[in-house]
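Incident review: delayed structure delivery

Summary: a single-chain prediction request sat in the queue longer than the usual turnaround. Root cause was a stuck worker, restarted by the on-call engineer. No data loss occurred. The affected request and its eventual output are reproduced below so the record is complete for anyone auditing the incident later.

Affected input:
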Amino acid sequence: MDYNFSSDFFQWIDAHADDDPNRLRLKYGRERADEILQIECRRKYAAKLGPALKADPQFIFPTALSGEQSTSCRLAAFHASMIRPGWRIADLTAGLGIDAMAMARHAGTQGYETAVERDETVADALRHNARNIPNLEVICSDCRTMLDIWAREGMKFDCMFIDPARRDSAGGRVYALDRCEPDVVEMLPLLRTVTKRLIIKASPMLDISHTLSLLPEAIKVTVLGTTTECKELDVECEFGLTHYPEPHIEAVTLGHGIDSRFTFTRSEEAGSAVQYGVPAPGDYILEPYPAVMKAAPFRLLAARYGLLKPAANTQLWCGHSIPEGFPGRAYEVEDVLPYMSKHIKRYASRYPRVGVTARNFDIGADTLRAKLGVKDGPLRLFAITDDNGNKYLITCKE
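Output delivered after worker restart:
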């Protein structure tokens, strides 16, 4: 795309911002293809990139895919909080540049950001979007080439950020770090020579223990999510330490008015004692946020907050009250029924509308919902198995 815009480029976008992009394409075809792309992307990624679009009315999407692959503004702000003002930083896989721009602003006038993007069209768009950020330089190159150049020149960075593409050469989905593009594990020897610290943004599908085994200099893993889903793993590596402590694992949940954090080590988890029990009416069931479930501090949650677990493999917690700071949702127990024929047959007449969750249960939620004859509703049913193998239907309200 040519970024020497004509005088009416953005005026046309504003004038047609509420029009149907498909109808615009039928009417204007290639004549206004670039403008229509902007209208479509602004609408599609308004929630994800709202602050960036509001801050810069002339923000440009080079392709529709660049918006889809981009970090959200909320997550970019979190990534930026992981660096310090004044640092010299490099984003090795910049893409649309939401992370790079957030980090450059956070680094401040005493810091400097280099954004590396190998796609020329995307790099040109990033230069345009970052035109008002004087401490951000955009380089169009493969990051491995730049690492070679920086190593030869003796260049040193305080921190590098990388978000490897999760596609293989055939376009198939991959997750393991040593199968992503570029291969961060393969790049480690070179990275050690040019930066003090490395932040890797990785798939939430990765096994944390296996990932740490590939990264001996990892000092922390952040499992980042919202109240409804786990979004990513961020692994921080520090090079050149004489002693490496056990990595910390932190589950961070960002939501509307929520900034929940739970930090621990695997040793703390392994050393925690658990007591088992089933809640009674008036008690509470506690369900951790998705990032916490991914981090898996299952024993430690019980020990740290004074809670019971129904069973070792039933990943719910219960107590007489809601512990302050618990990283999840709380449900007040209304009814506890043994999973028996007489209760199964009568359940729908008593609770016709209830959301169903099955944990460590011999049938799934959909099958149980059909068996009980209930429809989704405001209450929540937890079907669980306790430590003695007994099964229960626990009805709760949030």
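Verification: The first helix runs from residue 9 to 15.
Action items: add queue-age alerting; document worker restart procedure.
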